[in-house]
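Lab notebook, design round three. We kept the backbone fixed and only want residue identities now. Task for the bench partner: fill in a sequence for the structure below.
Input structure tokens:
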């Protein structure tokens, strides 16, 4: 479910900029493949923050799609406070995805950002250095308007990404004058390209820097200026995040769990993504990049459990993979006690992880509620249901509670003649060895049909990295299979 957030970045990127008049109010329709999936609004007005005169910018977005025909609703509301010199003071952001609410509040004092994050009943506080040249993510447009729009110029803007709680750069390029049809009328403006996390979006702004249209070609997403009345009209989306973006395969795979070996090429019709290189494909299933192809070689590997380290595993280099996150609450009393009950007296790290994977498989309902958001481990162990994300998050938290380091893996796997997004995990068993396991399918020996695209720790930054890596495949892509062997093949 966390893929949805990336859809929203482009639509909120070029919000109205403060100028000589207040208040500024704009509304936008959001479309994917010409089908309405929501709307957004931006309001900039004079306000006060802790007694100081400032500007208050309120961004709102409603986003609805289908997920295997179940409707998923996402709402975000962000309030930011800053002065006319673009000095940020603080913010409050609320994200609600099908009932799961995440609240992030930030206050800046003496170049320090004091954060409070509330998710699934837990409260986490953080303190970060906040350099003086950094602005909030939705203030990119304000930085642009602080100087004249000059054709064919490019600049980098340092931002704090409120959703993922990290600092990054946004490259902004002024392409030049353009005429755009907005709601049937031709409007003159400027074409602007922004690049964030390696993903480009394109925008049309008027002479005052106000947004008219934004597009995110990788997803077929477009945001177009409209009236408040039109934006808030009832709509029914036809977009299905899973079926519409499934990847076609050259042949059908009816039993993925029985695949012993698979060699294939992931073919990108429009060329390899810009972020693909030898470094970026490390620790993935991709072995070779050639022309417009990413070539994968996969084999089902059986691990010798006598080589596994004993619990608890304590190695400095993998310590970070044992830490609890806001999604994997391995220190929660229920998760700790459940983990201890599952593994009993087992000290072999591989066997203990296998017991946990099998327990998660048996305990979680397989009639997953596709209306659900990305539930945390704590929520999942209570609800006892979920799809691959919940299975993997809970298994990871239970493993960490037992002293087994884990990574979350994101990738694609087949269902008949198409590949779909999937999540599983890897467990550390000592001596530098990571072993993949899939609790959704009760696999402690992973089949060769799982194509790994990304891996990492499931904190806010790691979750976003997984999402961005997966987004690289949301384009004109096909999987060409040229070798497929099953376990029982002679």
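Proposed sequence:
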């Amino acid at each position: 479910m966390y893929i949805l957030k990336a859809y929203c970045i482009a639509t909120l990127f070029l919000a109205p900029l403060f100028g000589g008049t207040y208040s500024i109010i704009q509304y936008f329709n959001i479309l994917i493949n010409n089908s309405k999936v929501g709307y957004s609004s931006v309001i900039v007005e004079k306000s006060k923050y802790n007694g100081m005169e400032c500007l208050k910018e309120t961004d709102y977005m409603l986003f609805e799609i289908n997920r295997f025909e179940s409707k998923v609703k996402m709402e975000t509301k962000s309030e930011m406070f800053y002065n006319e010199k673009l000095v940020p003071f603080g913010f409050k952001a609320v994200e609600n995805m099908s009932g799961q609410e995440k609240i992030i509040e930030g206050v800046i004092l003496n170049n320090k950002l004091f954060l409070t994050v509330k998710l699934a009943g837990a409260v986490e506080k953080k303190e970060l250095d906040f350099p003086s040249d950094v602005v909030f993510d939705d203030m990119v447009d304000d930085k642009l308007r602080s100087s004249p729009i000059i054709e064919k110029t490019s600049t980098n803007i340092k931002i704090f990404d409120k959703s993922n709680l990290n600092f990054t750069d946004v490259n902004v390029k002024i392409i030049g004058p353009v005429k755009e049809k907005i709601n049937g009328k031709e409007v003159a403006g400027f074409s602007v390209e922004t690049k964030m996390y390696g993903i480009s979006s394109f925008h049309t702004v008027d002479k005052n820097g106000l947004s008219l249209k934004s597009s995110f070609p990788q997803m077929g997403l477009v945001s177009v200026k409209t009236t408040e009345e039109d934006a808030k009209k009832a709509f029914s989306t036809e977009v299905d995040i899973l079926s519409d973006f499934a990847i076609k395969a050259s042949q059908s795979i009816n039993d993925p769990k029985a695949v012993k070996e698979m060699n294939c090429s992931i073919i990108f019709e429009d060329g390899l993504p810009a972020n693909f290189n030898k470094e970026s494909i490390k620790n993935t299933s991709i072995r070779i990049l050639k022309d417009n192809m990413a070539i994968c070689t996969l084999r089902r590997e059986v691990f010798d459990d006598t080589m596994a380290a004993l619990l608890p595993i304590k190695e400095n280099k993998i310590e970070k993979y044992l830490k609890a996150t806001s999604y994997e609450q391995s220190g929660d009393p229920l998760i700790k006690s459940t983990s201890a009950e599952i593994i009993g007296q087992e000290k072999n790290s591989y066997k203990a992880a296998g017991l946990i994977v099998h327990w998660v498989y048996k305990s979680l309902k397989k009639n997953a509620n596709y209306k659900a958001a990305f539930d945390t481990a704590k929520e999942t162990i209570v609800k006892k249901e979920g799809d691959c994300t919940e299975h993997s998050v809970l298994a990871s938290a239970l493993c960490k509670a037992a002293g087994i380091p884990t990574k979350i893996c994101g990738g694609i796997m087949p269902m008949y003649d198409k590949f779909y997004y999937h999540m599983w995990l890897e467990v550390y068993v000592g001596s530098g060895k990571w072993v993949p396991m899939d609790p959704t399918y009760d696999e402690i020996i992973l089949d060769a049909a799982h194509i790994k695209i990304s891996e990492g720790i499931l904190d806010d930054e790691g979750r976003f990295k997984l999402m961005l890596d997966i987004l690289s495949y949301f384009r004109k892509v096909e999987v060409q299979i040229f070798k497929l062997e099953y376990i029982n093949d002679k």
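Keep this in mind before ordering anything: The two ends are 40 Å apart (CA to CA).
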